[in-house]
Write a structure and sequence with these properties.
Elements (H helix, E strand, L loop, with lengths): L11 E6 L3 H12 L4 E7 L2 H11 L3 E5 L7 H9 L9 E5 L7 H6 L4 E4 L4 H12 L4 E2 L4 H6 L19 H11 L4 H8 L3 H15 L4 H10 L5
Parallel strand pairs: 1-2, 1-3, 3-4, 4-5, 5-6
Helix pairs in contact: 2-3, 7-9, 7-10, 8-9
């Protein structure tokens, strides 16, 4: 679990986008109650969310998927997708009945996702994680949300031997795609968490990937996960 930054650090500026007023109010209340966070704006549709994000330059946008005017998927693509000059960190919130959108949300540039019914501490942990530049894949649902729709991902040509990773790095990548955390990967492979972090860093560098989220997408696209 992440801890708040030292006293004196600037608070993490958060924009909340959700079309359900009660949920949005709850998110704002939880986030604003944290000494290391500040809600700088809120809205109920994706178009306004994009406009506010560009105007307010938040550290993190908490983005619902299904919203009017412009859905969260397209809003995420406009804020964090390929070719965006100054991408914004987006943490997508979703529910099980919207899980078909999660893979596309990750491809659109989201830094991670959480379930809407996640406890407050997990939401706050997610915001802090994304704000620090790391990716957040909820271990409880990664296999269900990404794996369930893996058949929709068009595999690229080429075999695993064409991927520029060592056998050990491939093994770590497969475990990442299975939704395992660094500590779980360390336990599975009987290595230290620091060694796992080194492997993850090497994988991202070799494959020119931005974060753990893109690593999961890469694994599925190259037939390394099921």
């Amino acid at each position: 679990m992440n801890t708040p930054p030292p006293s004196g650090s600037a608070p993490t500026r958060v924009l909340v986008c959700d079309d359900q007023a009660l949920i949005r109010m709850g998110l704002v209340t939880i986030i604003d109650a944290q000494p290391d966070m500040e809600v700088v704006g809120e809205c109920g549709d994706g178009r306004t969310g994009v406009d506010l994000a560009r105007k307010l330059d938040p550290d993190v946008v908490v983005m619902d998927i299904r919203m009017p005017v412009l859905d969260g998927l397209e809003a995420t693509r406009l804020l964090a997708g390929a070719g965006v000059a100054h991408p914004v960190k987006v943490l997508v919130v979703t529910t099980f009945n919207l899980d078909e959108y999660v893979y596309e949300a990750l491809r659109a540039g989201a830094s991670g996702f959480l379930l809407k019914d996640a406890p407050p501490d997990r939401l706050l942990h997610g915001i802090r994680t994304v704000a620090m530049g790391a990716a957040l894949l909820d271990p409880d649902v990664t296999r269900q949300l990404v794996g369930r729709y893996a058949t929709r991902i068009r595999p690229t040509d080429g075999a695993p031997e064409d991927i520029p990773l060592t056998p050990r790095e491939l093994e770590v990548l497969r475990l990442i795609a299975d939704g395992l955390s660094n500590s779980e990967i360390a336990a599975t492979l009987v290595i230290s968490q620091e060694t796992v972090k080194t492997f993850v860093s090497r994988i991202l560098t070799k494959l020119n990937l931005r974060d753990r989220v893109q690593a999961v997408v890469y694994a599925f696209r190259h037939g390394l996960a099921s």
